[in-house]
Amino acid sequence: MRYEAVIGLELHIQLATASKLFSSSSAAFGAEPNAHVNEIDLGYPGVLPVLNAQAVRFATLFGLAIGAEINPHAFFMRKNYFYPDLPKGYQISQLDDAIIRGGKIVVETAAGVREVRINRGQLEEDAGKSVHDAFSDRTGIDLNRAGVPLIELVSEPDLRSAAEAVAYMRQLHHLVRYLGISDGNMQEGSFRCDANVSIREQGSDGLNPRVELKNINSFRFVEQAINLEIERQSDIMESGGTVEQETRLFDPDRMETRTMRSKEEANDYRYFPDPDLLPLDLAPEWIAEIRQTLPELPQARATRYQESYGLDAEATQFILQTREMADYYDALTAACGDGKLAANWLQGEFARLYNEFGGNVQDIPLSAERFAGLLLRIKDNTISAAAGKKLLPQLWESTETADALIAAQGLQQVNDDSQIAAWVDEVIAAHPQQVAAYRDGQTKMLGFLTGQVLKRSQGQANPKTVNALLQEKLAQ
Ligand code: ADP
Ligand code: MG
């Protein structure tokens, strides 16, 4: 390819606060239209915004998690424009003096590792929604979303492919959910992005005019929209044309992007500091307090799992699917004393039960401590792994301990060599043909004979001992 893509993303992350950024209206999704609206959201004259402290806490926690600087003197700006879903006639947002400054995200794709610098993270309010009713051919306005808090996270144009853009978005999506600052629900618009795309000759380092793709709310659409746009711009450049700076809309049904507004129609937002709001002066002690609440971050945790327990990428990804799952894994490991064993069992039999359950790990009936009780009995050879597999679903359903279930069902593994030797002798006597074949060099017969001994022991003989004794006796 002669061209390389240059991509910067603007992510909109809806914060999981109970109320809006500057009013006490509920920020919950899904109510009747205009049920969550008050005088402040409606922009009545004379009312004053009151900043939501929880939104500031969330933004600070997030900024610290991405290694950004928390601006001690941030302030809010009015971004003025006219649109029916914006009753005040301006959006309260931030610009260069945003609360989050700098930071970086390291993304990994099949093509390698990429460091993406963050320009800033703005604390701002969302607009309402225009709802078109096809039946009456009329458009209504729903202002439930008007004033809901967002972080707009602006990256530098450091991404070089659609795959990297998706990886970046996925990583941040995971992080905001992990931190608990956003539910990340993409269908409900809690996590969406504008993608800025330009291309340039491979190896050059200038920037060409960019196209902004608006409001994309799925990982698949981001990938498709960016790839389509790279193709469109490449075609233009190849035929000697120039790419115009503009805003385009992605249409997933037609698999195309089309012009929304050109640079000439671009808005002049007449930004100015909002006179109704004080500067957002954050004391260093307050920021330090938030820093104290920062949990161990996903990447640090993955590294710890790999280094302490030798887990592979697949295992760490499974465990880190949510923060609660990782907490469950940590509790399981602490209680059974074996991180590798705990990981194997989580990904194996546990995963099947968990999928069937279909909820969150914090709601499952099996505590990490009771689960660990089972793993301890596998570790000390009281029961076989096979018996453990059989027991796990019962443990999940019941409130008994593993020890109680093992005793009640007589599942203790027989580790007594003389008892196992007797079974081995019986099996050798009962299968002269297979024994002869084995001694003739058909080593696969060992598996058959081991199976026979285990069967005779009703699954209670320790398979390792069986195997060793069989080999010993067959060699005689
Ligand atoms: P503006 O001030 O016009 O909004 P910004 O500098 O804030 O522009 O950039 C907005 C977004 O566009 C950022 O995410 C940035 O990385 C990205 N961007 C800027 N220039 C380019 C370019 N030439 N190609 C691709 N993305 C770009
Ligand atoms: Mg911008």
UniProtKB/TrEMBL annotation:
GO biological process: glutaminyl-tRNAGln biosynthesis via transamidation; translation
Keywords: ATP-binding, Ligase, Nucleotide-binding, Protein biosynthesis, Transferase
UniProt-recorded name of the protein: Aspartyl/glutamyl-tRNA(Asn/Gln) amidotransferase subunit B
ATP-binding is among the record's keywords: yes
Gene: gatB
Entry annotated with the keyword Lipid biosynthesis: no
Gene3D superfamilies linked to this entry: 1.10.10.410, GatB domain, N-terminal subdomain
Catalytic activity line of the entry: L-glutamyl-tRNA(Gln) + L-glutamine + ATP + H2O = L-glutaminyl-tRNA(Gln) + L-glutamate + ADP + phosphate + H(+); L-aspartyl-tRNA(Asn) + L-glutamine + ATP + H2O = L-asparaginyl-tRNA(Asn) + L-glutamate + ADP + phosphate + 2 H(+)
PANTHER family: GLUTAMYL-TRNA GLN AMIDOTRANSFERASE SUBUNIT B MITOCHONDRIAL AND PROKARYOTIC PET112-RELATED (PTHR11659), GLUTAMYL-TRNA(GLN) AMIDOTRANSFERASE SUBUNIT B, MITOCHONDRIAL (PTHR11659:SF0)
Organism the protein comes from: Cardiobacterium hominis (strain ATCC 15826 / DSM 8339 / NCTC 10426 / 6573)
Pfam family, one: GatB_N
Enzyme Commission number(s) from the entry: 6.3.5.-
Ranges of residues in domain Asn/Gln amidotransferase: 327-474
One Gene Ontology MF term: asparaginyl-tRNA synthase (glutamine-hydrolyzing) activity
